[in-house]
Amino acid sequence: MIELIWWINSILLILIKFNSMNCSDDLCNYKIIESDLSFNLCISDQCHKYLDPYLIMVQPNNCKTNLLYLLFSSYKSFDLFLNRIEWKLGDLFPRRLNNKNRLLRIYLNSIDDDDQPLDQNQLIRLGNNIDSYQLYIRNFKNKTHLHKLIHYDPNDPIWFIIKVIL
Questions:
Q1: Are the beta carbons of 90 and 128 closer than 8 angstroms?
Q2: Strand 55-59's sheet: what is its strand order?
Q3: Which of 21, 50, 63, 162 could disulfide-link 135, Cβ–Cβ 3.0 to 4.6 Å?
Q4: pTM, to two decimals
Q5: Which residues form the domain of 80?
Q6: How many Å apart are CA 131 and CA 90, to the nearest integer?
Q7: Residue 106: helix, strand or coil by DSSP?
Q8: 3-class state of residue 103 by DSSP
Q9: Looking at the 3D structure of the chain, how many domains does it have?
C-alpha cells in the first residue's frame, strides 16, 4: 500500500512539473479542435499550422500567453470562430503586468471586399489584454478598402500585413 501511494505521488509530481514546463516563456499549449471534433496540440506560436479551428482550449487552463497565431481560410471563417467561442480571444492573454507586447496574429488565406476586420465592433469582440493585432492576408485584392493599411515584409512576400496597435 505504501508503495502504491509513493507511485501515485511520484506521478503527480511529474504531472505538475510537466504542466509548469508547458506554460513557460510566455508560451502555452493549446488543443485545436477541428470541425470533425478531432484535435491537434500546438504551442502558441505554432497553432497557425492548423486551418480553420472549430474551438481552441488552453492546457493547463490557467496558462496565459503573450502571443498566439491562428490560421483561417477566410475572414468569414475567423468570424464564425469568434461567434462560436463563448469568451474572447483576449482572455487567453495575461493582464498587463510587464512590458511585453501581447500579440494576436491571424493568418487569412483570403478576404472579401465586404469584410470588416478592423471595424470597431470586430476589434471589441477580440477582448482586452491584446496590445497588437496583426492580419496576414495571402490572397489580397488591392481594390479593397484596406489597401492603404497594408505593410509588406520583403522576407515573407506572400503575405500582405495589417498591424493594429490596440
A1: yes
A2: 39-43, 29-33, 55-59
A3: 162
A4: 0.80
A5: 2-165
A6: 10
A7: strand
A8: strand
A9: 1
